[in-house]
Amino acid sequence: xxxxxxxxxxxxxxxxxxxxxxxxxxxxxxxxxxxxxxxxxxxxxxxxxxxxxxxxxxxxxxxxxxxxxxxxxxxxxxxxxxxxxxxxxxxxxxxxxxxxxxxxxxxxxxxxxxxxxx
Length: 118
Prior knowledge:
Layout: H1 3-14, H2 17-28, E1 31-32, H3 33-40, H4 44-56, E2 60-65, E3 68-73, H5 75-86, H6 89-106, H7 111-117
Antiparallel strand pairs: 1-3, 2-3
Helix pairs in contact: 1-5, 2-4, 3-4
C-alpha cells in the first residue's frame, strides 16, 4: 500500500473516538481484547471490530499466545500519520506568531511604561 493511501486509511481509522482510546491503551503495552474491553467499558465484540479496523490499516500488530491474541500499537505506521500532520506544524506556528504580533501591535501601552522612561 502506498504511504499516502496508508496514511489516509489511518486517519479514517483514528477518526473514531473509541479507536483512538484503544490506541492510547496499546501505546504503553500490548493487551488482549478482554482487557481492553474491561478498561474502556466497551463490549468485547465492539472492541474486536475496532481492533480489526486498526489492524487492517496497520496501526496495531497482533501476536497470538495460546488461545489469546495480544495487540500492540505499531509505531512505524503511526509515524506516517505523525509526519503528515507535522507538515502543518510550521504553518500553525507561523499563524500563531502573526496573531501574537498583531495583538502586541494593537495593545495599548501599559500605564507603567511611562514611569520607566522618566
